[in-house]
User: What shape does this take?
Amino acid sequence: MPDTEARVGVWSEIGKLRRVLVCQPDLAHQRLTPDNSAELLFDDVIWLAQARRDHFDFVSKMVDRGIEVLDLQDCLSTVLADPTARAWVLDRRLTEFLVGPNIRRELRPWLDELPAATLARYLIGGIAFHEVPAEVAGPFLRTFAETEPAGFVIAPLPNTQFMRDNSSWVFQGVTLNPMYWPARQQETLLTTAVYNFHPAFAGEQFKVWLGNLDGQTYNHGATTLEGGDVMPIGNNTVVVGMGERTSRQAIALLSRSLFQAGAAERVIIAVLPKTRSAMHLDTVFTFCDHDVLTAYAPIIDGVKPISLRPDDSEPGGMSVTPERKGLTDVIGDALGVTFNVVATAGDIYGIQREQWDDANNVVALEPGVVIGYDRNTLTNTALRKAGIEVITIDASELGRGRGGGRCMTCPILRDPAY
Assistant: This one.
């Protein structure tokens, strides 16, 4: 059960949301071009000014509901004002393997002296070769800058906009996620720095279910986990999608940690197709109320769930059971609920368009209240007819990286619901 004094801990998908971490679009999005957007996992360049306005509106609508909203860049600025924390971050971000030994030596003294807010913006937004002052750039920086006129010494991280993915709070613990695509892997270090050094997390006691709180690079091999696949639904049960970005190896390691700590009694795996449109479970399936889900039927109806449970008689200390029922029925049985599933609405073309535009990627602020994109008019109407209050935000720019309300939020403190 949750500690009522704790400031961290996520006990459900739809309980009252009290504290959340986001990241406003900023410099990293200004770096997006037609040439690099695909590598950086965006479908197109974005209009930054509009994206910032829309994200501010998104945050404001959460604040209006009494939710404490933390922003990664702001938190990182606070962290980097502490010399010990700054050294911790730069020791891990500016390694020989990430930037090269010579460039590391040329760049580090400059970064050591930058104002904290500027450094935070650069660590998320990236540092272009041409932005390094002439008096700082040594022979290696100058030489390689000529080979890559539009290149980066430190690559931008525009997908920090989707804060759901680089860490996941599961009950009274967190996963610090080894991410699938190289374009996102450095995000986790910055979030880990916030958890280690920011005053909002000072003195909090929590477990680390997967990953490394020390922030040191390790060879995670085929172990990849992203928060869009992780759903702590309650009743000692966690649902995890296994598709493009979350691997069976990661799910097994996460399950073992949870079971050994007595934190969970069951992990339900949702086996997904490895496609961009269903990159995470939450792109096709989210919770809206105690007994209401929204789902993209063409994918969810075909999911074959697998249950893992602690079992000391089995090798590895857990059992594995392929389920006979579909995903929503299996989850309903685990929670003692019969769900009303609101499917993506529209004709054969419309449902594909609305799912692509994150119609099923809503974030619950409390039971029966969700935030979703305005353009998904048919699915939003279906949710409202099911009794859900749908608060809308503009989708025109924020959705270009394929993520909606759930993707853009990392809940830090959420109440139980069952």
Observations:
- The first strand starts at residue 9 and ends at 10.
- The two ends are 11 Å apart (CA to CA).
- Residues 19 and 68 are 5 Å apart (CA to CA).
- The chain has a mean pLDDT of 94.
